[in-house]
């Protein structure tokens, strides 16, 4: 994990040993990461990994039980002034159900110092969202579109989206992500977007955060992470160190041969192994699979 690497550019989000606990269970633990300003970042993890918890800590909806979270250098819990720079669309896009989209836009314009009314109205007009219908009567996908339009109209420096495309059909999903990219490209807005749809994320994101079982498993620029990992195929591996390899992320074996997904250390690789590039999706899946069900089998009293 390279979450503690020295930052090169100003940071939109920074966490240091951040933790949140419910009873005895840590929803997020020892979470240290940087998200440089201007990135479009994917937040990936299995159900219950801690993604929503990280986002809620980042907008001051939850208070940390350990460590710190800073947005543009400020604690969102202690310094609520920084919240005006954040747009947040929570999972299931909660909106006031009795209000129409037009009324929500009016409310947004009164509550926010920076507000782009034309952006919100143009976007919802293009999508055919009726202005006067209570949003509680819109479809889940239409509500998600309204929530994104409101978040974008705030002209945030940091936009946090918790599974924004989950309720959208494939066409709407693509349109949503294109609109998101278009809106943030000009403004330099930093985006952190959680989703289970890896192919979508691969298309739009240039930064990656992988959480698994409350811990950060992987964080960094997509190009760097892809360059640092590869698949090795070679003689059966019995666990001894391999030149050029920092970590073995995943291993599978036959009697004579091993296939390893590894993180390299930047030095030349042992020539006994054939190295192949690894697609981003396979890389993410390897980190997601890591020890996934071990604790669950213990909790259910069954063997894996
Ligand atoms: N209010 C709560 N009370 C108790 N436990 C909670 C609460 N909220 C979350 N948790 C627990 O914290 C852990 C992380 O939950 P979180 O919602 O952050 O996961 P997630 O990665 O967003 O999951 P999903 O992909 O399913 O939305 C889970 O084990 C969850 O059961």
From TrEMBL:
One of its GO terms (molecular function) is ATP binding. Residues 13-238 form the ABC transporter domain. Pfam families: ABC_tran (PF00005). SUPFAM superfamilies: P-loop containing nucleoside triphosphate hydrolases. It comes from Angustibacter luteus. Keywords: ATP-binding, Nucleotide-binding, Transport. This is ABC transporter ATP-binding protein. The keyword Transport applies.
